[in-house]
Each structure stands twice: as C-alpha cells, then as structure tokens.
C-alpha cells in the first residue's frame, strides 16, 4: 500500500466518523515563539486543548508535516531516526475520550483492506498503558477484547506524553505490532522494541504542566478545562509495516532517493550486512542521511524556509550540508542535489502537489546553497585535514579551539562539521575554547555596534548610572512633556560630568522621560530639555543597556548641571509622523500575511517620519498585482477608521488572542499588545496613532530583495504619501500637456515614443556600421609588409563603439588573403575613452604571432586575454595608443621584456609613458589589506594591487577572474570564435576613467 493511499484511508476513516479534515500547518511554527518547527500533530490545536480558543469543531483529523532535530546526529546511524516525518492524527476537544479513541484506532488498524482499513492482524497487536490507568486497560480488555497478557503497564518515561515544554499533557496508550521472531525475542514491548514496533500513540490529554525538566520530571499545574484526545500515528512507521519493509528508509517515499544516491556513488545499500536495517556500516549510514536530509530540505524550502546562519534557516543549512558532505564521503565530487532533489519531488508530489508546481523556486535555493557549500568545503577541508594530521603526528587527542575558530571565522567552516570530521578521525575538539573565542568575537562586535551608536564602547558609566538610580521610567505613551530630574550627566565620550556649557555634546539620564528610545524598528524622539537657565536639544535617544534611557544632546543655551530638575518636551510633530509609520507597518505586515500566507513574517523594519521600510520572509518576489491589492486593502482599513488599542497582558493571553510574536524576540511574562480593531494584533512596544484613519494615506513605493528569501517593501505615509502622489500627478499632467492627450493616455504615448526611438537607434546603428565597414576592403588592400607580415593600422570613425571597432578589425582581417600572415590594429575614441583592438589571422598565429602576447608585452601584462583578439582601454587623460606605426617588428615587445624582466621601463605601445610592470604590491581587500603571499591570488578573490615600483601611486581595486583575466564563459566563447577580449575591472588611479587596460 502506497504511503499516499495510507494517508487517504486514514483521513477517510475519521471523516466518516464525524471528524473535520484539517490541512497540515506549515512546518515553521509561526504562532509559537518557543518552537522552530511543528514537531507533533497536535501543535496547531494547542489553543483548543488549553481552552484559550473555542474550536470550530469537536472532532478533527489531519496528517501533519513535522520536523524533529534534537537527535539529528543520530539520523542514519539507526533505521528509526528521521528528521522529517508525517503524523496521522485524530483529535477530540471535549467530545469522546478514552473509549472512543481506543475503539476508533482498533477499528481502522484491523479492518480489512477491502473495507477501507489497514488489515493488520489483531492477534499480533499489543497495547501499553500508563501504570495506574486502569480505565484504559479495562477498555482494551473488555471492550476491544485484547488478552491481558498483551496489555503492558509502563511508567512516565514511556506512557506519559508532553511536548517537552509547558503545555497540555496526559497519560497515553500505545499500539505495537509483533513483526515475528526474525526481528527479535518474544516477550512484548518491554523485551524488544524492534520486534514489537510501536505504530500508534493515543494521548488522553487531561492536564496542563509546567517546569518541564525531563521526560519524567515536570509539574502538573491543573486539569484542563475539558478532557481531550490527541493521537499520533507515524505515517512512515505504519507505511513500513504495510509495505513489508524493515524501516522508514525503505518505504516508497524515501527508498528511490536512497537508491539514486547509491547508484551515483557506486554503492549498494545493505551490501555489508546480512540485514541492512540492523547494521550501521558507514556507507549505509551516509546513504540514509542523504535520503532523509534531501527529503527534509525539499519540504522545508517548500514551506518557505531558506538557508541562513540563524534560526530555522540554520537548521536547514545544517541538514543540507550533512547530505552534501555524505555524498562526497561516498566518492561523489560533483553537485548532487540537481540529481537527487527531483527524485524527492517525484516521491512526495502525490501527497503534496504544490512541490511540483513550486519546484523551480525550491531548486534555486537548494542548488545555490550546494554550490556555496562546495566552495567552503574545498577551502576548509584542506585546512582541517592538515590540522588533523599535525595533531596525530604530535600525539594530541584533540584540535584546539583556536583551530576550530579559525576554520569558522576565516573559511566559514561550521563547527558542527569540524566536530563530525574530527570524530571520524578519532579526535576531539576543544569546544570550550571555541565557544570562548566566539563569545569574545560577539562581545567585540557588540561593543563596536554600541560605539557606533553612542560614540564610545565603555559601558561602565552606564552601568553606574543604572545602579545609582534604577531603571528609567518611560511615560511617552501617555504624555509628551514631563518634569524630570537630571540623574546623570556624561560627556560624548562617556566621562561623568557635573555641568556642561553651551556648545558641548553631552548625554543625559533622567529619572523619568517621555522620550522614546530607538528600538523595535522605530526611530527615536527628538526634542528639548530645559533645566534652569540652560537648554539642550536632544537629537538621539538610545537604550545602551536594558532599563537605561540615554538622551544624546547638545547644549544650545546656558549651563546644565547634574541633579537639577527641569522639563523634557518631545517634538510632537515628529512623534506623530513616526507613530503613523509604525501603525502602517503593522497593517502592511498583516495584509502581506493575508495575501502571501503565514510564512510572510517580519524580518526587520524601519519606522521613520512619513516613511516605513518593512522586511519580511517570503520565497519569491511579490507581483505588482499583489502589491496593488495589499496597498488597496491597507487604505481600506484606514477608511474604516478602526480604533488602535494598546494593553498589557500575559504572554499566554496574548497568544490566545492571536497576537503575532516574532521568532527570535525575547518576551517576558507580561507583554504589550497593540491591536488595530480586529484587523491586526501584534506584540509591540512602540508608539501608535489612536485610530487608523489618522494615517491618512499609505503609498507603497517599491518591493525588492535584500537577501535569500527576504523581501523589502518601502512606503510613504500621511502627508509624505500625499506629496508624492501630487508630484506624480503634476508630472503626468505635464506630459499630457506636451503630448496633447488626456492623462490616461500618457503611458501609451510614451511607449510609442520609446518604440520610435529604439527603431531610430537601430537604423542609426545600421548606418554607422555601414560607415565603419565601408572602407574595410580598401584598408585591407593597403596593408603594409612588416617583416613578412601584412599589417593594417587605422582609426575608426568618431563615435564608433567597442562592437564597431571589433567588427571593423574582423572585417579587415577577413579581407586579407588567409594564406598571408596578417596583423590588424584599430583604435577609436567613444564615451570619453580611447580603445585599441588588435587581431591576427591563423597564418600569423602559425608563425608564432599572438595579438594577446603583443599587447601584453607592450603593456607589461595589461592587454587582453585571447591570442587572437585582445582589447585595451586607455586613460582619456593620457595619449591614446598610437602603436601601429611605431612597431618595427612583432618581436620588439619580447626583446624589451627580455631586456628588463618583470618591468618595462618604456612600452613601445605608449611612447613617453612609463609602463606599469607586474603587480609589486598585492593585498587582500577583504582582510584589512593584509599582504598576500608571493603576490598570488585565487580566482574570485578581491584584491588591491599597486602596479608600479613607486609606492606613492594609488592602490587599484581588482577582482581576480581567471588566469587570463576573463570569465570562463568568455574564454570558451573566444576560443570558439577564434577571437577574444577582456573587460577591465580596475582603475588606473587617475580618477577620470573606469579602467586602464584588460584584466590582470
């Protein structure tokens, strides 16, 4: 029986028994800040179990996608552990209880296949129950008819279920199937859980627990408002039973991935043991890791998770990297996901057809991650192998924390991979040392960030101010002016002061303040603080340490003294503009979720006067039509003039109300909730308007990508939005006046104009080409003989572009007798730059003449890349190339180079110019200008070079492309065409041109 059919039968059985079929929730646990992923079928129903929400049904059934990662390192080592799995479940919310759950489960498990059941042999099924759950045992024996010898009592470790965090819990009863003596000894689940395989868990959800310390150590708070049922049947587990295979890796949704990996690597699963499921040969372990992790990655990316260095994205990245590395350990060195991911898609699409329709997006994320990781592996593995060899040679049993940190910090090599590789070689890693170095780095980064915000990195003065007076009370929600006392006075550098005079930059700490400190994406308040005869202008407000609000200001009048009392007054106009933006951000967030789904969660924001920036997670670009609908719906909420209400409540109550909580944010027991009518509700500490109508207008300006899986929307709010639309209207009206058409026809007329211009440009291009190429035949016939080689040198007509110059050189070369060696040089000036193209034919190459070598020798390595077609771009402030009539023979550049190895004092191509020699100073542009050993750099590396022996000349930014200074694609194209070229990527330092010559 196929896995998709098992899923269908399960849902059909419970739907026929009065259950509502509920779709699987997305894998990311959107509404629970305590969870990364959904890890059980009941997670989406927790508010119903706790009585926080009224369920819309009394009975429900679902097949929930789940992820469990605590034992990710065990995946593959046994046939039981898996990262992604599907949980069949049926649920009752105050309806049926133990007897209903047990009889419904028994009926489906034992009903014949022909009648829609699973057809399991009832004589081979065992049941377990909690130690003192006599009620469940009696139901199994008297109602179902199960013999007492096949009913086992067990303790909390085995038969008391909870999620591992505070929440609902209760005793449970499990169903086991006896797979026969081939799998182990007789005696029931207590004796052997390989032979007696658990396939269904019935949880009698009765209590709320807290203080969860372990599986058996927790505190029962109180009974739940009603008795509930939560059952879970692992779909992969029951599939292995019904398909007659040993484990989850051999079912129809997983085995094809494993077989494909085995075929690619030339391995055979289970070849090293009599029973593959019971052994853990390294090859089998790796094949299982690949099968599980590729499927898991497919499902995670499909649900909107993208690889990153934190949170859910890091879990995905780690899973993908384990699969990729396992393929390499099996001998496969090429990218593997393009061959494995489509197989996983085909396996899962029968149950999740959206995977097929969305596969292009999914594969883009997956393939890009693999390419990046393979590069990391190539660099890091070499370094790690050397460190391991050195440790073994020295007799050490571990790698130092410094070595692990260097791999992580310099090469991006993840610590978990270092631990895994070291363990395979029998070595440990100094994790404590690694963590200490990481903590030091974070502390430095935090201090640097603080220094950028406050102007100094020393927090001791702030801690002293907090210790002296305690937390600063913020009253800005209720008032905009306030009497306050100056508790502390600091200089801009953090030095305590007693007084400050006019013109000084200072920082003030008040005992109470209406000024909002920057946080939560909201910009700070500005304003004035008047103390006695002194007055300061506040231009920034920060909270450098929790509880302490610091006002950065300049004294604009008189003198300010510590300990004095005065008045703090914020800039009300700025506050209102910021508040409008912040409320608008909440509305945009909620509306994006309405249109894009619950995965469109906030990833960052900026709330400034009159404008907002909202970053959110979503896998792809948002279409213009969706943006229009979002904008329209937001403005409809404004027209509704909904009340904006803020209140303090418990975190549990906020979750019951459906308030959005952002994963990664830390919330206390009490939280502040901001709700806009019934439309939007979020946990938020910012300031807002009183009613949605006060926003006036919201205009979305743009939508763009700022990273993998993260998009950014920018918008204007209030009068700024009105001003923008007014300017747009004025512009359209002016265009309409010029075109003499109504406003709504301006776009059409502009399109017509653009089309006409393009057509005119094409015609002009044709005429210019005719002009440029018209004299090719005459120029070819005027070729001069230089040392037995036909030579043509000319200048293209004024305004000829790079393609024109290239085409002209090619035409001239083509019109010279192919049997006659020929060199063609064409120069041009266009766009403020002078350029030179040199081409040679096959006969000339047969005599050892290379255009690339000629130009490179003349410019000491600064020419093009292909032997037939180099291109030089010269500085417009210098004399343009006039080389062709100065060459007396093609050998002269080589003679010059031999006379002065490594440095050409005067290049034949550029008379009176001092040529640039080989790079004498090469530095890493990404590591603070550190020198690069032997002046050598790798492909793709960003460097800074000085191409002169004179130290006073400027450094030049450059990117190393390949040995010829061009991309591989351009090199292949040049080889196919018999031509070549190079594009400049660095400047000559004169400040007047983009590049001096070809690539380095």
UniProtKB/TrEMBL annotation:
Domain Alanyl-transfer RNA synthetases family profile: 1-727
Coiled coil start-end: 743-770
Essential cofactor(s): Zn(2+)
CDD domains: AlaRS_core
UniProt-annotated location(s): Cytoplasm
A GO molecular-function annotation: aminoacyl-tRNA deacylase activity
Details of cofactor binding: Binds 1 zinc ion per subunit.
Organism this protein belongs to: Phytohabitans rumicis
Record-listed Zn(2+) binding positions: 582, 586, 684, 688
Protein family according to the UniProt entry: Belongs to the class-II aminoacyl-tRNA synthetase family.
Alphabetical GO biological process terms: alanyl-tRNA aminoacylation
Signal sequence bounds: none
Gene (UniProt): alaS
SUPFAM superfamilies (UniProt xref): Class II aaRS and biotin synthetases, Putative anticodon-binding domain of alanyl-tRNA synthetase (AlaRS), ThrRS/AlaRS common domain, Translation proteins
Enzyme class, first EC level, given as a word: ligase
Keyword Ribonucleoprotein part of the UniProt annotation: no
Major localisation: cytoplasm
Cellular component annotations (GO), alphabetically ordered: cytosol
Record region (Disordered): 964-986
NCBIfam families associated with the record: alaS
EC identifiers of the protein: 6.1.1.7
Keywords for this protein: Aminoacyl-tRNA synthetase, ATP-binding, Coiled coil, Cytoplasm, Ligase, Metal-binding, Nucleotide-binding, Protein biosynthesis, RNA-binding, tRNA-binding, Zinc
Name by which UniProt lists this protein: Alanine--tRNA ligase
Transmembrane segments: none
SMART domains for the chain: tRNA_SAD
Cited Gene3D superfamilies: 2.40.30.130, 3.10.310.40, 3.30.54.20, 6.10.250.550, Bira Bifunctional Protein, Domain 2 (3.30.930.10), Threonyl-trna Synthetase, Chain A, domain 2 (3.30.980.10)
